[in-house]
Amino acid sequence: MATADDAPTVPGQALGGPGAPRQRRESDPATAAPEHLDLAALEAEAAALLPPAVADFYAGGAESETTLAEAPAAWRTWRLRPRVLTGLSAVRLRTSLLGSDVATPIGIAPWAYQALAHPDGERGSARAAAASGALLTVSTSASAPLAEVAATEPGAPKWFQLYRQHSPAHTDDLARRAGQAGYRALVLTVDLPVLGRRLRDVASGFALPADLPPGNLPTESAVEAESPVWTVDDIARFGDLSGLPVVTKGVLRGDDAARCVQAGAAAVWVSTHGGRQADPAVASAHALPEVVDAVGDDAEVYVDGGLRSGSDVFTALALGADAVFVGRPAIWGLATGGADGVSRVLDGLTAQLAHTMLLCGVPDVRSVPRDAVTPAR
Ligand SMILES: Cc1cc2nc3c(=O)[nH]c(=O)nc-3n(C[C@H](O)[C@H](O)[C@H](O)COP(=O)(O)O)c2cc1C
Ligand SMILES: CC(C)CC(=O)C(=O)O
Fold first, then answer.
1. Domains plus CATH for the chain?
2. CB 285 within 8 A of CB 74
3. N or C: which end of the chain has fewer CB within 10 A?
């Protein structure tokens, strides 16, 4: 429902109000109707299904995990200011991101090695994104080749996330191939000049299994294959190589955002990399307003990190984000239910967003007013 074109979202029908058909069991988070999405239960279910070291790799952050822990709480430092008596009975969820039409402003963040979570892997995420009308960002460190993921639901919009490789020729080749394969933007992840110190992985001895498909990487050790330093000149260079608009992911400061846009970035993506890089880093929810102010109308702004409910998403949109992305919720969906599990997460969060919009009297995801939220006192 929530992803239908301009179809109205009516609380009584679409959000499981009185008389709404109930097709799935409420007690099972993996099969619950979207409005009953229980991410905490899904997270626990995923952790129980996965080998402990893999579960820790997905769940973990860097250093003291302060940023990781604070991310969801930071969204909850904002409060909704519902507008009443608006007569609103339907909301619009559809929007456009760098010219691609999407049915929801909630996309899938790039995350590595998806075959470790479920055999559906990245192709499953691509099917889910297409089914939910959501944007998919595919990691350089995918466990499937970029062209194969692009060819899964080829009509659905996908972006390719680029890490710089040891070999400049390999990095250039990935950028070119991303453009040729039909990706619609190139996302340079700029917050990983070195890998964050992830103590859970040290403790567990996490290592990639020898039989994990190499995807886009020429060596057996994907993490060590990266030599990840970007400069601002790379924005124009990789835009030219790929023929794609460039997004810089991992920006937390207004001055950096302005530099990116000046250098030609079409969008800036506020992110702490899921608390896996600098720690303790400012929460995305607190960095977002500064970046939005610095960018103005010159580029799009996205955000990720700790978004776990429709009201979190609503807050991000009110603070000026054009779209949000989820990492771990998509991981939990894939681990517990493959492609269908990812779709349930996307549809559930989108349904929650629609619900919040109705409660707050906001008709359109493209224009959630800044004064729809206020700091908690
Ligand atoms: C297991 C895992 C793998 C990730 N792999 C990548 C990656 O390959 N490239 C990238 O740019 N970001 C990567 N990220 C960061 C995500 O894109 C995203 O910024 C983060 O997960 C958002 O926070 P959330 O998990 O709280 O939603 C990864 C995150 C996790 C948890
Ligand atoms: C290959 C890794 C660097 C993937 C990643 O971004 C992460 O684990 O956070």
1. 35-206+214-359 (3.20.20.70)
2. yes
3. C
Q: What three-state secondary structure class fits 300?
A: strand
Cis amide prior to 280 (ω within 30 degrees): yes
Q: Is 273 a catalytic residue?
A: yes
Q: Out of 36, 273, 286, 355, pick the active-site residue.
A: 273
Specify the amino acid at residue 357.
M
The two structure tokens encoding residue 152: 């899964």
Element (H, E) at 137: strand 136-138
- Torsion 53-196-164-154 (CA) sign: positive
Cα separation of 82 and 261, whole Å? 33
Q: What is the mean pLDDT of the chain?
A: 90
Which of 68, 223, 279 to mutate for ligand 2's pocket (most ligand atoms within 8 Å of CB)?
223
Beta carbon of 189 within 6 Å of any ligand 1 atom? yes
| ipTM score assigned to the predicted complex | 0.99
Picking from 257, 300, 304, 268, the residue whose alpha carbon sits closest to that of residue 108 is 304
Q: So what's the pLDDT on residue 213?
A: 84
Among 188, 107, 182, which Cα is nearest to 149's?
182
